[in-house]
Write a structure and sequence with these properties.
With 290 residues, the chain is α+β, with helices and mostly antiparallel strands. Helices cover 25% and strands 27% of the residues. Strands 5-4-3-2-1-17 form a 6-stranded mixed beta sheet.
Length: 290
């Protein structure tokens, strides 16, 4: 399958961001991609920089909201699977950070609600989002069987493992990650390397492809230095090799992901065969030290 990632810069206008995403879907489809994944919460500036009750007005229903409906039409017209990360309004006062998978025929195959919710300086997502309650998921699409996780889930090997055990051939991680400008000189390169290394390890340990589209550009926040989203979207193969990688500008990244490589890698590195499932019960504990 040819996998596409849309690395894009957001504006203050949700309609403009949605139109850019729809255009990206059509462009990827015209380039022969079978599936495209959009960055996390692509419809707006990143809302987690502050706690503001007015921002709940940006949430929408899935699949009945305007973003899902526009992407359903785009997926059908372009003949491409679309993964979109959205601010879901589930009910009054109940919201999720949700990835919806739309098949190439425009049918919604399912949703994944982000399981791990961060609460760090300028990433105040716990204010907005309830933790996901659907568990980890994989969906059969025209492009193949895929798994969707979201951003902060990237740091958790358990999430990648379970989604891979559900049969996903590609793990998609729509992402919004960047630098606090004051920290970039000291920590910037290491942060990018850690982000990529963690996900490449998921690809290796599970014998799957990993694809992570990030947003780009600086987004201001009054009273702070804002966040500079660093892009660097990438696709890694089951050996952990980067088969496609982006810089810090807007682009559509495309790579061919051959399911036959999953079979080849797992035959030579049979990590799933050698798992000691009888010995892992204690992982359900919060901590095992003193």
């Amino acid at each position: 399958m040819k996998v596409a990632l849309l690395q894009m810069r957001m504006t203050a206008d949700p309609a403009e961001n949605l139109a850019k995403a729809v255009a990206g879907v059509h462009e990827a489809g015209a380039a022969g991609a079978a599936i495209i994944c959009l960055p996390e919460l692509f419809r707006t500036f990143y809302i987690g920089q502050r706690e503001d009750p007015a921002l709940f007005d940006l949430a929408e229903a899935i699949p009945g909201g305007p973003s899902t409906q526009a992407l359903i039409q785009a997926a059908r017209e372009a003949g491409i699977v679309v993964i979109a990360s959205l601010f879901e309004r589930r009910a009054a006062g109940l919201y999720h950070n949700t990835a919806v998978t739309i098949d190439a025929d425009g049918e919604v195959r399912g949703i994944y609600r982000k399981m791990h919710i961060p609460d760090d300086p300028a990433y105040y997502e716990k204010y907005y989002f309830a933790p996901g309650d659907l568990g980890f998921r994989a969906f059969d699409t025209k492009a193949g069987r895929i798994g969707t996780l979201v951003c902060w889930d990237q740091w958790y090997p358990e999430a990648a493992r379970i989604t891979s055990l559900l049969g996903a051939q590609v793990l998609f991680y729509p992402t919004a990650i960047g630098w606090h400008p004051a920290e970039k000189d000291e920590w910037g390169a290491a942060q990018v390397d850690a982000w990529r290394t963690a996900q490449r390890a998921h690809a290796i340990a599970n014998g799957v492809y990993v694809a992570s589209p990030n947003r780009v550009g600086h987004e201001d926040e009054p009273g702070t230095q804002g966040i500079t989203f660093f892009g660097r979207s990438f696709i890694a193969d089951p050996f952990g090799r980067l088969i496609a990688e982006a810089g810090e500008g807007e682009e559509i990244l495309i790579a061919r992901c051959d399911p036959a490589m999953i079979e080849e890698v797992r035959r030579n590195w049979p990590f799933l065969r050698d798992r000691r499932i009888d010995a892992y019960g204690r992982i359900l504990s919060r901590y095992l030290g003193s």
